[in-house]
Write a structure and sequence with these properties.
The structure holds two protein chains of two kinds. Chain A is mainly α. Chain A is built from eleven helices and no strands. Classes of the chains: A mainly alpha, B alpha/beta. The complex binds adenosine-5'-triphosphate and magnesium ion (MG).
Chain lengths: ~250, ~325
């Protein structure tokens, strides 16, 4: 690969980072919102007992981490729409670098931002006494976090290329992502109800949450072994990234 | 040598033909202007030539490379300043330039000196560390022009470079453009709907309307085609007078408009008494009469039959939904 392609990747990454650091409101809300979920849902459901869940906070924490990474990364993908509206996309698209490098840079930038948020929540969860497994588990957790981020950026890119404005994005969030998230076992186990369990097995978010939980938390009841989840998550990730870069490379302004 | 060459280039948006089988060429080192009213198809042409839009039909070459088959090579040879702002407003001016320089593969040393150079050129040296969202419209435009010429493009595309700027800034930008063209030998393709801009800057001009090119020629030739001098007059019975004047062979062209008539003639001052005499013999009262050198307005009028302003009024009703434009007019 030529060095100008690396430059493009680096620039796209740097841009995401700078924008993230400079946007105080995004910085704050991206951390406060998940914490809000962690505390409110955490204290609300703590009194309920779920089959196979001893420590609800340890159950919930991976779900919230997955959610934070998911939202943040989707935002990065979808923010191509901003660039379109503010015209900056044109500048990017006439540059003599491959669109693939642009995608990679943007994805890495989005993923870095999302991982920072994920780790902050992880640290807070640790402080709250969530019981995590060993080094291998943490490494696997890291892999899941990266894959979740990449997949969500890819999905965001697909949405951005299919939509003209942000209203459509709201619709997708409310009618697709939120239900999928609730059926992903992020907030409560889906195993108790057989229909729900069947539905979950078609829910790509389910494998991400289940895998993240299985690798991060010690002694927890997950549906699938983490490595099986990993396989599914990896395949979905490759497909999403492929679709995202395909649609992006076709984009005209 | 032709640095841009198009061959029946066409772009349709659904059932609207925005650019209609245009063929033209631009020579290396010249400043070529596309002059046309709103909705004429100028931006669409630029977007095709800069590889942002796929032509529906036809082909084009820029700097010797095909805009469809060799997009990357085309991109490497061009600089573009878009009609709508294309800056990252969350970054500073210097960062915008820095990012651009890296994407175009300038080395570290080159980047540094070049950024200084272009910032000085557009007088933004003291604003370089300010976030672009705090720039004024004119400052943003200057930054974009600076960015467009940073990487020594072979061809620089400027889509309405001075739209919405004050007179002083326009002058300054014209000077930069002229300087670029002379000192760095950059070929410049610009679009505008300002006659004075085209007149001041361009070597050759194409008049485009409704997606078609009406005429392409040098500014001087275009003006001469209207006549050496233009006489504008209004009178009590225009129809009758025009009919009579059409018999006179010394009038190279006559155009009747709503409230006035223009005549293309040689030695205009000497023709005024003659015209007044003719009018008097027909009992027509001349209300006003004047003579001047032809301008591009006359050229435009001659080829489209209307003034630019009339044309824009009809085009705005023609072009279906009004499009959002980022820049204030
Ligand atoms: N993406 C698009 N989708 C549909 N129609 C479009 C699109 N872009 C341009 N058009 C139409 O194509 C025609 C030519 O537009 P274009 O932007 O090329 O005009 P222009 O000469 O640049 O005008 P202006 O001086 O206003 O910038 C217009 O009628 C416009 O409405
Ligand atoms: Mg335009």
């Amino acid at each position: 690969m030529k060095s100008v392609e690396f430059q493009a990747i680096y620039i796209m990454w740097l841009r995401q980072m700078k924008r993230f650091v400079r946007s105080k409101s995004r910085l704050v809300s991206s951390i406060v919102k998940p914490l809000f979920f962690l505390f409110i849902i955490g204290s609300g459901f703590r009194v309920a007992t779920f089959e196979g869940v001893d420590d609800y906070l340890s159950f919930l924490a991976p779900g919230i981490i997955a959610m934070a990474i998911l939202f943040s990364s989707m935002f990065t993908g979808i923010s191509v729409l901003w660039d379109k509206q503010f015209g900056f996309l044109q500048e990017v698209l006439v540059a003599p670098v491959s669109r693939f490098s642009i995608i990679i840079g943007r994805t890495l930038g989005g993923a870095t931002v999302a991982l920072i948020q994920g780790f902050i929540i992880l640290l807070i969860a640790l402080g709250l006494g969530v019981k995590i497994s060993g080094v291998f588990g943490l490494l696997l957790t890291f892999v899941f976090m990266i894959l979740i981020a990449f997949t969500a950026v890819g999905f965001g890119l697909v949405l951005a290329s299919k939509m003209e404005d942000f209203q459509g994005f709201q619709l997708i969030m409310n009618l697709l992502i939120m239900p999928l998230l609730f059926l992903s076992s992020a907030f409560f186990p889906v195993t108790a109800n057989p229909t729900m369990k069947t539905i979950s097995s078609f829910n790509p978010l389910f494998y991400r949450v289940d895998g993240l939980r299985g690798s991060l938390i010690i002694d927890t009841a997950t549906v699938n072994p983490p490595l099986l989840d990993l396989l599914v998550v990896l395949v979905v990730c490759i497909i999403m990234m492929g679709l995202g870069s395909y649609f992006f490379s076709k984009s005209e302004v | 040598m032709d640095i841009i060459k198009t061959n029946n280039l066409t772009k349709n948006f659904d059932d609207l033909t925005a650019v209609d089988t245009i063929s033209f060429s631009v020579k290396k080192g010249e400043i070529f202007g596309f002059l046309g009213p709103n909705g004429a198809g100028k931006t669409t042409t630029i977007k095709m030539l800069t590889t942002l839009l796929h032509p529906t039909k036809g082909s084009a070459e820029v700097a010797g490379f095909d805009i469809i088959g060799a997009r990357d090579k085309v991109r490497r040879n061009i600089g573009v300043v878009f009609q709508e702002p294309a800056l990252d407003i969350e970054l500073t001016g210097r960062e915008n330039l820095e990012y651009h320089a890296r994407m175009y593969g300038l080395s570290r040393d080159k980047r540094k000196t070049r950024i200084e150079d272009v910032l000085n050129l557009v007088d933004l040296e003291d604003k370089k560390n300010v976030l672009v969202k705090n720039y004024s419209g004119g400052m943003k435009r200057r930054l974009e022009i600076a960015r467009g010429l940073m990487h020594y493009p072979t061809v620089l595309f400027l889509d309405e470079p001075t739209l919405g700027l004050d007179a002083q800034t326009r002058r300054a930008i014209w000077n930069y453009i002229g300087k670029m063209n002379k000192e760095e030998g950059t070929t410049i393709f610009l679009t505008t709907h300002y006659m004075d801009e085209a007149d001041f800057l361009c070597d050759r001009i194409g008049i485009i309307d409704h997606g078609s090119i009406l005429v392409i020629d040098s500014v001087t030739n275009l003006k001469n085609s209207v006549g050496n001098d233009v006489i504008t007059l209004s009178c009590s019975d225009m129809v009758k007078l025009v009919k009579r004047l059409e018999e006179e062979s010394w009038i190279s062209n006559i155009e009747q408009h709503d409230s006035f008539v223009t005549l293309g003639v040689e030695k205009g001052e000497e023709k005024i008494p003659v015209i007044i005499e003719i009018a008097q013999s027909l009992n027509i009262r001349i209300k006003s009469i004047s003579v001047r050198k032809p301008t591009l307005d006359d050229v435009f009028l001659h080829f489209t039959g209307r003034t630019m302003r009339d044309q824009e009024a009809t085009n705005t009703t023609r072009s279906a939904p009004p499009r959002f434009h980022g820049r204030m007019r």
